[in-house]
Amino acid sequence: MLISNEDVIKIAKSLEFDLIGFAVAEPLDEEVRRLKTWLSKGYNHAMDYMERNIEKREDVTKILDGAKSVISLGLNYYKNGEYSGDPAFGKVSRYAWGTDYHFVIWKKLEEFSEELKKLNPEVQIASYVDTGPVMDKVWAVRAGNGWLGKHTNVISREIGSWFFIATIITDMEFEPAIPQTDLCGSCTACLDACPTGALVEEYVLDASKCISNLTIENRGEIPAEFKGKFDGWIFGCDICQDVCPWNNKFGRETASAEFQDSTNIELNLEDVTQMTNSEFRKEYISSPINRARLKGMKRNAEFLRNSNKV
Ligand code: B12
Ligand code: SF4
Ligand code: SF4
Hints:
By secondary structure, the chain is α+β, with helices and mostly antiparallel strands. The protein has helices spanning 5-14, 29-40, 54-58, 101-119, 136-142, 189-193, 211-215, 239-242, 245-250, 269-274, 277-284, 293-308, and strands spanning 19-24, 69-76, 89-92, 125-128, 147-148, 154-155, 163-170, 199-201, 204-205, 233-235, 266-268.
């Protein structure tokens, strides 16, 4: 049986996704050319995994034989909250205040797949959020869910940029969306506000300078050149999104119960440096903070404490 756009939209709504769009599963020639330029300049820093599976990132039929469409989903995680400004604490970026979104979205994607198979048991599906060899942002843009902002996050006219992206590759055909217009215009607020100069050009981020990468993905030391430039961030960074005028205009509170928790909005630096492995596991096993590991969090806390001593 054929599955229509409306059938899929209904499933997405029942699973409380905020955005849904459809794209044709074509090769990503231009975007992968840009990805290769990005890699050749070393802008992936130590994220070696970005160099792997380029052929899959370029062509989703290498992931799912016979793929015809890509469904892009968005889940709003915005929750209002204030940092204390106390230098004894490190700020955690908004996406990591509560439960790890991977767990939340993987569960939804499993249900999504079950619902699609109820409509047509023959349908072939491969679903990803963040971790697969799939260019989530490119598909969100192609599927009409937003435009790529100069800060390199996708911005939606409905909810700003505070949303996670999930990508479903399928052998079903759908009516594709018309991509949204880039509304960045002459604005450069994100480039001007980035304290480490990580937005090296409009739409281009050098991860070796980005606080998000340096505090989460990075396994090495934080270079001394960034001392005093971290603006109190211990895990991730939201500056370029906080200053974006479209987030002020379109951003709205998440309806997802899973993202209501703000337990980890900021962390006491002294507590982090004293934490044991078992305490860390107990505290952060279901949080995105687990990704940085205890060693990384201790490094980040020490770096901030030393920065504060200028
Ligand atoms: C690697 C990665 C990172 C790296 C690199 C970030 C980056 N800009 O790529 C680091 C660790 C720094 C990072 C940080 C963050 N990340 Co991240 N990350 C990813 C990941 C795994 C891959 C992204 C990727 O392919 N990068 C490769 C480069 C080449 O891509 P790009 O920057 O988009 O490059 C494009 C532009 O440069 C463009 N381009 C170049 N020149 C020009 C010129 C013009 C005119 C135009 C229009 C475009 C253009 O072409 C390139 C290819 O399309 C995705 C998940 C996934 N599987 O896709 C999540 C993802 C992008 N991250 C996400 C999030 C939430 C974050 C953070 C907000 C977390 C935080 N608060 O700390 C920050 C945001 C930092 C920032 N300003 O982007 C979300 C973004 C959601 C959204 N609404 O866009 C994603 C999609 C995860 C998810 N599934 O929800 N991340
Ligand atoms: S996340 Fe922070 S460090 Fe990275 S580009 Fe945005 S403002 Fe700069
Ligand atoms: S701050 Fe301005 S330039 Fe940057 S993404 Fe937002 S609108 Fe675009």
